[in-house]
Specification:
Blueprint: H1 13-25, H2 38-57, H3 59-63, H4 72-97, H5 103-111, H6 129-146, H7 155-183, H8 187-206, H9 218-223, H10 231-249, E1 259-261, E2 266-268, H11 274-284, H12 288-301, H13 303-320
Antiparallel strand pairs: 1-2
Helix pairs in contact: 2-4, 4-7, 6-7, 6-8, 6-10
This protein binds fe (ii) ion (FE2) (2 copies).
Amino acid sequence: MSAPTLDRPVPDETALQQQFDATIAADHRIEPRDWMPEGYRKGLIRQIAQHAHSEIIGMQPEGDWLLAAPSLRRKAILLAKVQDEAGHGLYLYSAAETLGADRADLTDKLIERKQKYSSIFNYPTLTYADVGVIGWLVDGAAICNQVPLCRSSYGPYARAMIRVCKEESFHQRQGYELLMTMMRGTDAQRAMVQDSVDRWWWPSLMMFGPPDDDSPNSAQSMAWGVKRHTNDELRQRFVDMSVPQAEVLGVTLPDPELALDPETGRYRFGAIDWSEFKQVLAGNGPCNDERIARRRAARDDNAWVTEAATAYADKHAAVSA
Ligand SMILES: [Fe+2]
Ligand SMILES: [Fe+2]
């Protein structure tokens, strides 16, 4: 009898690729230990990191209002929301780690501007109405983007999105409820809400990314089941959802071309200023420098906590060894 061999046959790359393709075609999930093409892994790390960075940077514009919330109730709501965003960032960094990325490295890439985050968070929050409008429109756009990601082909990303979306729904509602309250208030409060809607509407539409014919990664991402709908489809869905909500609220969306198309039942809307989007993405938005500087300070000022925790863990490991 021959001795059992420990050598397992190494499946060839073609067989692995076929297995991967079959998993995607069957709409099953790819899990961390499964073989995956390098492009799939890299593309996912890029997308998940960008998403994680957006959650963490997104804490800043609203966090600016925590000390100036108009009541204890509003402060408690805003604090819960901003903390949720921190949690979203952490789930997403963890999902990126299952692909072999390193969280500290991702943070460095964000600070060195080698990885992006959503352009929307480079705009300033000038009044408390902005807290409401961000909840209504920005978190509303995030929901449109993220609900289909619950069916993303990569298991850890899809599962993270299920909890994230439940919390985003609270974010959207608290924003809308705040705006409804302000609209029932004084003329000055109503004017504040309208001014905020005027400033955030177009940047919210840009959150869905460039138009489909100018979105280089979209087709591959759709083929791999990471993305389920194109940028333009999601943008249209967001417009169709938001127009009736604006009517109930009693605000005017700042687009004279916005009109219901009776044939399709969908809203037509005006041209988006993509040059502004590109400028903001290139680092020239109103708050890009401030956002990155604060993230850098958070990393540097808190480095001693990481060092102390690491030293403590090492000491424990040495004692139990
Ligand atoms: Fe979030
Ligand atoms: Fe949110």
